[in-house]
Write a structure and sequence with these properties.
It is a single chain. The protein is an alpha+beta fold. The protein has a single domain, classed as Alpha-Beta Plaits, CATH 3.30.70.20. Helices cover 18% and strands 18% of the residues. A two-stranded antiparallel sheet has the order 1-4. A two-stranded antiparallel ribbon has the order 2-3. It is globular. The chain starts with a strand and ends with a strand.
């Protein structure tokens, strides 16, 4: 099950920088995670400064 980014995202880019499989993309207005690429490692959720990322 992939992680998702909710509306609390501030589009800071921290999650994108730590994703080992480059599953995170800039969206409008928030970042998005490609569920087909996400490996459920949780590094993005750990790095998110506003706790906007969680398991789906």
């Amino acid at each position: 099950m992939a992680y998702v980014i909710d509306e609390n995202c501030t589009a800071c880019g921290t999650c994108k920088d730590v994703c080992p499989v480059e599953a995170i993309n800039e969206g409008e207005p928030i970042y998005t995670i490609n569920p087909d690429t996400c490996i459920d490692c949780g590094q993005c959720a750990d790095a998110c400064p506003v706790d906007a990322i969680h398991p789906q």
